[in-house]
């Protein structure tokens, strides 16, 4: 099938596409980079508050238990992209060097109903990304002399996952997402000569990361009356160690290798992560959701010069208005939907003893074709990450997300009853 060939090509090229970015994120210099908060799915326009929701047509990759809500005998294929633009202020940055932008594929997903009670999905998306560039003074050990050093970093961790949901009762489903996290981070340190005209010494450090990662999920709910129903969702990921291998290469100004070795084998610990959601749905037309997420970074005791990792939390509130009509076969289908959302929380970073906050809002619009198996979601997010302290760098960002969905019969020509 054409869709199978296309999906295979995208699975192979996604890491390359995702890595071809020119955006700069100063916070990604720490840990394994910026950990992705968006699910890049149908609920992005609702501030990603979709843990309690499921859909018969679209994939909800934020909760594996939701896969039991997919239509039987059909498969769904989705690709999500994002354009991001950021403007930085504080900490001495000035125009025009305070702007960055990028466009990349962020998620590719294939899902289907394996059996009446069993839904399954495979996908690939970034787990974290690193991309930064800055200069600083560095002291030459054993002397009082300082030299100018330039630092550049890129890379990230990818997440390949297999998610499964099983319906244990009429209203309750359980799920598990089994992932393999893999990737590398590279930091290049360039020491400039005394007159700052040439690079005297270059040190490249590569960190190779990998391990399995699991997320356990549940969805349940019940009807309140003939018009209202409520849904609940919860996901949990236990603390996980990522195995890390450090490799260092040192070269002189004329390109001669001075040192190349595996410096150490270590690990980076990801904290426990819990996400809870509640939804109220009126006549399958109006949906109100609220999500609360917490990550126990503080328990890992990570600290460095002027920063430390602390417990993070995020609260998201979303709304959706769905519009339905009848198709040529007189069957009711969802024609379009409009979404809004707001979110606020504290990130896992505390810089110079000041917490880094993240807050913003989102709107989204989705449309399902009446005559073809294609649907499109567009979602716009705008927010600010940072602090009011002008001595600390802050980021104002705009994200424009597109999710393309293709739904088709598993076996064409076969009659289903």
Could you describe the 3D structure shown?
- With 417 residues, this protein is mainly β.
- It has one domain: Outer membrane protein transport protein (OMPP1/FadL/TodX) (Porin).
- Helix content is 4%, strand content 64%.
- It is built from 1 helix and 19 strands.
- It has one helix at residues 2-19, and strands at 34-35, 74-89, 99-115, 118-139, 146-167, 173-192, 199-223, 228-237, 240-252, 257-270, 273-282, 286-295, 303-304, 307-309, 312-326, 332-351, 354-368, 374-386, 394-409.
- Strands 2-3-4-5-6-7-8-11-12-15-16-17-18-19 form a 14-stranded antiparallel beta barrel.
- A hairpin with a 5-residue loop joins strand 17 (354-368) and strand 18.
- The chain is elongated.
Fold-level CATH name: Porin
Helix content range = under 10%
CATH superfamily: Outer membrane protein transport protein (OMPP1/FadL/TodX)
Strand order of the largest sheet: 2-3-4-5-6-7-8-11-12-15-16-17-18-19
Number of domains: 1
For the secondary structure, the number of strands is: 19
| Average predicted confidence as pLDDT | 86
Q: Indicate the radius of gyration in whole angstroms.
A: 23 Å
- Poorly predicted runs are 1-21
Distance between the termini: 24 Å
Structure characteristics:
single chain, 417 residues, mainly beta, Porin, 14-stranded antiparallel β-barrel, 4% helix, 64% strand, elongated
In brief, what are we looking at here?
4% of the residues lie in helices and 64% in strands. The protein is mostly beta strands.
Helices, strands, pairings?
Blueprint: H1 2-19, E1 34-35, E2 74-89, E3 99-115, E4 118-139, E5 146-167, E6 173-192, E7 199-223, E8 228-237, E9 240-252, E10 257-270, E11 273-282, E12 286-295, E13 303-304, E14 307-309, E15 312-326, E16 332-351, E17 354-368, E18 374-386, E19 394-409
Antiparallel strand pairs: 1-4, 2-3, 2-19, 3-4, 4-5, 5-6, 6-7, 7-8, 7-9, 8-11, 9-10, 11-12, 12-15, 13-14, 14-16, 15-16, 16-17, 17-18, 18-19
């Amino acid at each position: 099938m054409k869709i199978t060939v296309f999906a295979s090509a995208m699975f192979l090229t996604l890491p390359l596409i995702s890595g071809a970015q020119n955006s700069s994120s100063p916070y990604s210099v720490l840990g394994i980079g910026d950990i992705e908060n968006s699910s890049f799915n149908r609920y992005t326009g609702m501030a990603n508050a979709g843990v309690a929701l499921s859909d018969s047509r679209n994939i909800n990759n934020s909760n594996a238990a939701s896969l039991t809500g997919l239509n039987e005998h059909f498969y769904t294929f989705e690709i999500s992209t994002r354009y991001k633009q950021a403007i930085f202020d504080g900490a001495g940055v000035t125009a025009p060097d305070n702007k960055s932008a990028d466009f990349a594929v962020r998620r590719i997903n294939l899902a289907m109903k394996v059996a009446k009670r069993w839904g399954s999905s495979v996908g690939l998306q970034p787990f974290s990304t690193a991309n930064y560039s800055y200069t600083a003074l560095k002291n030459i050990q054993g002397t009082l002399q300082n030299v100018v050093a330039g630092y550049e970093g890129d890379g990230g961790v990818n997440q390949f996952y297999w998610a499964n949901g099983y319906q244990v009762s009429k209203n309750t489903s359980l799920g598990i997402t089994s992932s393999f996290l893999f990737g590398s981070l590279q930091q290049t340190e360039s020491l400039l000569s005394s007159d700052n005209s040439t690079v005297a010494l270059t040190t490249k450090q590569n960190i190779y990361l990998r391990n399995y990662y699991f997320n356990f999920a549940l969805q349940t709910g019940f009807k309140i009356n003939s018009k209202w129903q409520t849904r609940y969702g919860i996901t949990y990921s236990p603390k996980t160690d990522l195995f890390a291998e450090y490799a260092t290469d040192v070269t002189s100004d004329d390109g001669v290798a001075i040192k190349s070795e595996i410096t150490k084998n270590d690990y980076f610990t990801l904290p426990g992560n819990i996400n809870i959601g509640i939804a109220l749905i009126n006549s399958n037309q109006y949906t109100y959701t609220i999500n609360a997420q917490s990550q126990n970074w503080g328990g890992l005791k990570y600290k460095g010069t002027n920063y430390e990792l602390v417990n993070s939390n995020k609260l998201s509130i979303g709304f959706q208005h769905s519009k339905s009509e009848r198709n040529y076969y007189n069957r009711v289908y969802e024609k379009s939907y409009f979404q809004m959302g707001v979110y606020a929380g504290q990130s896992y970073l505390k810089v110079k003893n000041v917490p880094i906050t993240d807050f913003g809002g989102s709107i989204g619009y989705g449309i399902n074709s009446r005559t073809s198996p294609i649907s499109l979601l567009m979602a716009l997010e705008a927010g600010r990450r940072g602090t009011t302290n002008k001595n600390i760098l802050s980021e104002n960002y705009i994200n424009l997300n597109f999710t393309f969905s293709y739904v088709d019969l598993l076996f064409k020509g076969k009659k289903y009853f």
